[in-house]
Design goal:
The complex is a heterotrimer of chains A (314), B (177) and C (665). With 314 residues, chain A is α/β, with parallel strands linked by helices. Chain A has helices at 15-34, 61-64, 87-90, 100-111, 177-187, 190-202, 209-213, 238-252, 261-265, 272-287; strands at residues 9-10, 12-13, 40-46, 53-58, 94-98, 120-125, 141-142, 163-165, 170-171. Chain A is globular. Chain B has helices at residues 23-32, 54-62, 83-100, 118-135, 140-146, 151-157, 167-176; strands spanning 14-19, 41-46, 67-72, 108-112. Chain B is elongated, with a radius of gyration of 21 Å. Chain C has 665 residues and is α/β, with parallel strands linked by helices. In chain C, helix 13 (449-458) links the parallel strand 22 (434-439) and strand 23 (463-466). Chains A and B meet through helix 6, helix 8 and helix 10 of A and helix 2, helix 3, strand 4, helix 5 and helix 6 of B. Chain A: Keywords: Iron, Iron-sulfur, Metal-binding. Chain A: InterPro entries: 4Fe4S_Fe-S-bd (IPR017896), 4Fe4S_Fe_S_CS (IPR017900), Helical_ferredxn (IPR009051). Chain A: It comes from Geomonas paludis. Chain A: GO terms for molecular function: iron-sulfur cluster binding; metal ion binding.
Chain lengths: 314, 177, 665
């Protein structure tokens, strides 16, 4: 989008914008809890420390009045509807606060039969961006403290949500840092690329936070935890680490919604979203697939066309 | 080449994952036609290329393969109708991933070899073997097998005398006392 | 597996010439878990097999590896031998050290080393192997045939004659299909109805055939041997059990000017009608859209005149569920509607030819009706506009067919022959008339076909012009046909009295919808796809469903009948046993770990994967998981490679086996 042509492009997003969203979320959450449309709302409550937020499931109108939205609301809440938290949905319809990137995850989970649209009430957030890692949390979002993934966000508008909170506003002239980094790595000679990733992966301590936080890693038994046969060595050694990250990227290819939570939670600062981005880019180029805001019939690696590219096959 | 074997310094280990209906049969045909090709390849038979998991390729490299071949039926010839179509997408994506992390794709060959293409099987195997021979052993995954956690990090941060040379680490160590 | 036996074959000298078999056997014996190893001159010979059986007994072997030729050659032999020795046949594997080793390498050392490696890999495969039992599926010995044209009739009669029950479902009020519309048939020029109607009557009278006309397939459940097909019986408004077929209702029906579909709209029929006099069954049907009773509620003449009281205006659509074991799809074709671009279709249409606006431009099927003794003109060639006998007739071949730019690139196969036939029929009926044919190529492969075509050209005086027609327009009562003769290289202009277009053969409307109900695949034109173009031309990829006739691709009558009989033979083969035995190399789901993402279901080309609900004792839904129907699974394993958690596994090619082999590299 042309920044100059759009007057909603600003240099900073002030707390008032987030406050307006907060009010809208509170109002909507209280309403749907009161009229029993939903049994609970997954959203954000203020964190114990100033300038933080933490995910929460609220079930009463009183609690709903405490929900917030701020640049600290970094978490992708869709993960609270799968895996260990699956039980939440069994209680009845659930409301969920979702940014654009979270909506892509919800859509993906619907594609994969993990969620049903009719079980959800989606309170979409017109999100201008959230904080990056280790930045100054002033309450105002600027070029200096916005998350890397948000710099190239294409889903500010949560289309398809039941309600949307906020008006379209985004920061102007953001540098696409991630795309630049991706291009830099791709331009490297092959050996250098290997060295780059080898260094990153060898630091991995296999805490599995990336898996834990990923809405798509909902398998009840991860391939990488299996030991008969053991496809991926599960001690934190370089060989197994490399295998784990390749398998992870491969399993997410064509599914990842790009929320970059894996990268955010990585204690070793491994740029995991670059792998996801690279795969997404490849699937876009080859099969014109992009993770979207609505569920699809089949993901790009679950379908085929007879005339798919096969220039790499002899 | 027939009848006479040239001794090489390096004999690469080539692993071939093939489908049983086309490529395995094509390799059989190469045999019944008494064609000759380098003996470096070890064939693993699958019902269909659709069954071949990228993890197998990864594991083969980890277990010392210098080159990997994946081969199946031509598009439209799949005995199971669409297995090779699914495999084609899966491996297109996997190739891109390997390339991105810095694996030389010259070591990974994909091909369609039908049951009638004994000659093509010989060509594909010979070409891959010779190409990988020229490239030398594949060090990347093998090295990883022998490395321990932090080893590359340690290399970067520990100087030749073994002393820690980053201020942060030094501070961390000092604070432990 | 801990007591594996390895048997290394010399294959005469075929293996031992380049591979040191003794060394291979010795090395195999040193692999942990190998309890016995030996080498022998001919393992496949009787003494060789006896050796294997004795060793199994003596050494209490629980797995066998024969290092010899390709498993494609002798796997069955050795699995049988192993079974005779009391082992599960799937615990016997072959290491291919002949085709993949001794025959393709000259260097003895390297070939021996490779043979050892192959044996090492395969020992791991045997070690991780599992006993498998063949899968048996019960078979309902009752077939469904969809479509009552010549293909469906032939298939139904063949299956019924073999003693099996058949349900024949036809969408129209009568069976007969397109063949019943034809006047005479190539290359013998015998009357179509004369050879068709006896078969139709046979169907009606066959004790093993249940005929449902004016009925359609609503829903198909189940799988090979066990289909449940819901058939919709459209309301005929005439009770078939009461109607005697006297026909008085048709003669008394006041609404008689409805264009008759059977005569391509060139004859008239009443609102209560049978499509043609020889219809089977000879029970009329009320065309509700054109019936005064249904449209305004005032008439009821047919009910009044019907002696047995068979007319029933209140009749509703009914549904029955038919249990069948096999399905033959024989839905046939339709002719290309050339005058307009069909909505939503890539096909362009031939508006420039004036079809549909100039009445004397007709298609081949209309010409068949004009030439038919039972047709609207009683077999006289009279043109539609003024009923005059045309003295110059232009036939145009390849209208729609072989025109990539117009959306259809295939050849319709029958047009060359039927156009030649038309010129002859025309010449026989209008002695002083002249037939011209515009054609691209004359394609006449088939017994007696080229002779037939030559007869049209050489004896029956048809003028064949190689080239296409660019434009046609009405001038007075003539149609000016402008085309080119590319052989002579001149423009041709013919003043025709009648133009007949050989339009492309297309699948029936709704062919795609039926395919979706059946779970079979179809190409971009909606022709149904056979499982293999050469070796499985009548089978569908979906087990238990077979194809016959033009629904699979354009076909003439002999080819259609052949394919119908072939499909019937396939059905009979299936019905020959009470239970269907299948190779146990099929996928299984680990329900404990399956999370129900159904990626497997999405990639399964066989439609073998269903969603299964797991419930607790109170009946609450715990989760949905995938379920593989072993009767349908083809065993490709694409599901397993797709499953992120490997909760679906292909027996015979488990991850454990494959990983163990890779570890042994």
């Amino acid at each position: 989008m042309n920044a100059k042509a759009n007057k909603n492009h600003v240099t900073s997003i002030e707390p008032a914008y987030y406050q307006a969203i907060t009010e809208a979320i509170r109002k909507e959450a209280a309403k749907i809890l009161k009229d029993e449309t939903v049994v609970g709302v997954v959203g954000y409550l203020p964190g114990r420390r100033k300038g933080t937020a933490s995910p929460a499931l609220v079930t009463t109108v009183e609690e709903a009045e405490k929900l917030i939205f701020s640049p600290a609301c970094v978490n992708n809440l869709s993960v609270y509807l799968t895996k260990a938290k699956k039980g939440v949905l069994k209680q009845g319809k659930v409301g969920i606060v979702a940014k654009g990137c979270d909506m892509r995850a919800l859509a993906g989970l619907m594609t994969e039969s993990q969620l049903q649209r009719e079980d959800l009430f989606i309170i979409g957030v017109v999100c201008p961006g959230v904080y990056g890692f280790g930045v100054e949390r002033t309450g105002t979002l600027t070029d200096a403290n916005i998350a890397r993934k948000c710099r190239e966000c294409t889903v500010h508008m949560p289309e398809g949500a039941d309600v949307a909170a906020g008006t379209h506003t985004e920061l102007a002239d953001l540098t696409p840092e991630e795309a630049q980094e991706l291009a830099r790595i791709e331009a490297m000679p092959q050996a250098e690329r290997w060295a780059f990733w080898k260094e990153h992966f060898s630091r991995c301590i296999r805490c599995m936070a990336c898996r834990q936080v990923c809405p798509f890693c909902y398998c009840e038994q991860c391939l990488c935890d299996k030991n008969r046969p053991q496809a991926v060595e599960n001690s934190p050694r370089p060989a197994g680490n490399m295998a784990w990250h390749l398998v992870r990227a491969m399993h997410l290819a064509g599914r990842c919604g790009g929320c970059a939570e894996c990268e955010r939670v990585c204690p070793m600062d491994i740029p995991l979203n670059l792998l996801n981005r690279r795969m997404a880019q490849e699937l876009k180029e080859l099969y014109d697939f992009e993770a979207g805001l609505t569920p699809v019939d089949k993901g790009p690696l679950n379908e085929y066309k007879e005339n798919d590219d096969q220039s790499f096959i002899k | 080449m027939h009848g006479e074997h040239i001794k090489h310094d390096f004999e690469p280990k080539i692993v071939a994952f093939v489908c049983t209906w086309c490529t395995y049969a094509g390799a059989d045909l190469a045999g019944t036609s008494r064609m000759q090709y380098p003996p470096n390849v070890r064939v693993l038979k699958f019902p269909c290329t659709g069954r071949i998991d990228p993890v197998f390729i990864l594991r083969a490299f980890q277990k010392g393969a210098d080159g990997v071949l994946v081969s199946g039926c031509h598009p439209g010839d799949c005995h199971y109708m669409a297995g090779n179509f699914h495999a084609r997408r899966r491996f297109a994506a996997f190739r891109a991933l390997l390339d991105f992390v810095g694996v030389d794709l010259n070591r990974l060959q994909f091909s369609w070899v039908s049951a009638a293409e004994g000659g093509k099987w010989v060509d594909v195997v010979t070409e891959l073997t010779e190409r990988v021979r020229a490239m030398g052993p594949m060090p990347e995954f093998k090295e990883l097998e022998h490395e321990e956690q932090w080893s590359t990090f340690a290399e970067a941060t520990v100087d030749k005398s073994g002393a820690i040379n980053t201020p942060e680490l030094k501070e961390a160590y000092d604070s432990i006392g | 597996m801990s007591r594996i036996g390895v048997f290394v074959c010399h294959c005469g000298e075929n293996i031992s010439r380049t591979v040191d078999v003794e060394q291979v056997a010795k090395a195999a014996g040193e692999i942990p878990g190998v309890a016995f190893s030996c080498d022998y001159k001919y393992m496949c010979s009787d003494p060789g097999q006896t050796l294997l059986k004795k060793a199994v007994a003596e050494h209490k072997l629980d797995g066998v590896l024969v290092a010899a030729c390709s498993p494609r050659m002798h796997e069955k032999t050795f699995r049988k031998a192993a079974e005779a020795a009391g082992l599960n046949p799937y615990l016997c594997e072959m290491a291919n050290i002949r085709e993949h080793c001794s025959w393709v390498h000259e260097d003895r050392d390297m070939a021996t080393a490779k043979a050892k490696d192959i044996v090492k890999l395969m020992v791991e495969r045997v070690r991780k192997g599992k006993s498998l039992a063949p899968i048996t599926v019960p078979v309902t010995k009752r077939a469904l045939v969809i479509g009552g044209g010549i293909a469906g009739i032939q298939a139904a009669l063949d299956i019924a004659d073999a003693g099996h029950k058949v349900v024949l479902v036809e969408r129209e009020p009568s069976i007969g299909g397109h063949m019943a519309q034809l006047s005479e048939t190539f290359p013998t020029l015998d009357c179509s109805q004369c050879i068709m109607t006896p078969k139709m009557v046979d169907v009606a009278n066959h004790p093993n055939i249940t005929l449902f006309t004016y009925s359609e397939i609503e829903k198909v459940d189940g799988y090979i041997g066990n289909f449940q097909v819901t058939v919709k019986h459209k309301a005929r408004s005439v009770d078939e059990s009461k109607c005697t077929g006297c026909g008085i209702c048709m003669t008394k029906c006041p609404k008689k000017k409805i264009p008759n579909e059977f005569d391509q709209g060139h004859g008239m029929r009443p609102a209560i009608y049978v499509p043609f006099p020889q219809a089977v069954p000879n029970t009329p049907v009320i065309d509700r859209e054109n019936c005064t009773m249904f449209q305004s509620g005032k008439c009821g003449v047919c009910a009044k005149v019907c002696g047995p009281g068979a007319v029933d205006y209140e009749q509703q659509d009914t549904f029955t569920v038919e249990d069948v074991g096999a399905i033959v799809v024989a839905t046939g074709f339709k002719l290309y509607t050339i005058d307009r671009k069909p909505e939503g279709s890539p096909i362009q249409g031939y508006g420039e030819f004036g079809y549909g606006t100039i009445p004397d431009i007709i298609d081949g099927m209309t010409f068949e009706r004009l030439a038919s003794a039972s047709g609207p003109t009683g077999g006289k060639i009279l043109r539609p506009s003024d009923g005059k006998e045309p003295k110059q007739v232009v036939f145009i071949q390849c209208v729609g067919s072989r025109a990539r730019e117009k959306g259809i690139s295939y050849c319709s196969k029958v047009c060359c022959m039927y156009t030649a036939k038309h010129t002859m029929l025309y010449h026989h009926k209008v002695h002083d008339g002249q037939a011209y044919v515009f054609f691209m190529d004359a394609r006449t492969p088939g017994k007696g076909y080229d002779e037939f075509w030559r007869r049209a050209v050489e004896e029956e005086e048809a003028v064949y012009i190689r080239g296409m027609v660019s434009r046609m327009y009405q001038r007075g009562d003539k149609i000016v046909v402008m085309g080119s003769d590319i052989q002579v290289g001149v423009q041709v202009e013919i003043e025709a009295d009648l133009v007949v277009l050989a339009t492309a053969v297309q699948p029936q409307d709704g062919a795609d919808l039926l395919a979706q109900k059946l779970g079979i695949s179809y190409d971009k034109y909606n022709f149904y796809s056979e499982a293999h173009a050469k070796l499985k031309p009548v089978e569908c990829a979906t087990a238990g469903i077979y194809l016959a006739g033009a629904c699979q691709g354009p076909k003439d009558i002999p080819d259609t009948v052949s394919q119908a009989s072939a499909a019937a033979a396939k059905v009979m083969t299936l019905f020959a046993k009470d239970k269907l035995e299948r190779d146990p190399v099929v996928a299984k789901v680990n329900e404990k770990y399956c999370v129900g993402c159904f990626a497997c279901k999405k990639v399964c080309a066989y439609g073998a994967i269903e969603e299964k609900e797991i419930r607790d004792r109170q009946g609450n839904l715990v989760k949905k998981v995938a379920y593989v129907n072993p009767g349908v699974c083809g065993g490709c394993g694409t599901c397993q490679a797709t499953c992120p958690s490997k909760s679906i596994e292909l027996d015979g090619y488990t991850d454990e086996q494959i990983m163990a082999m890779i570890e042994a590299l």
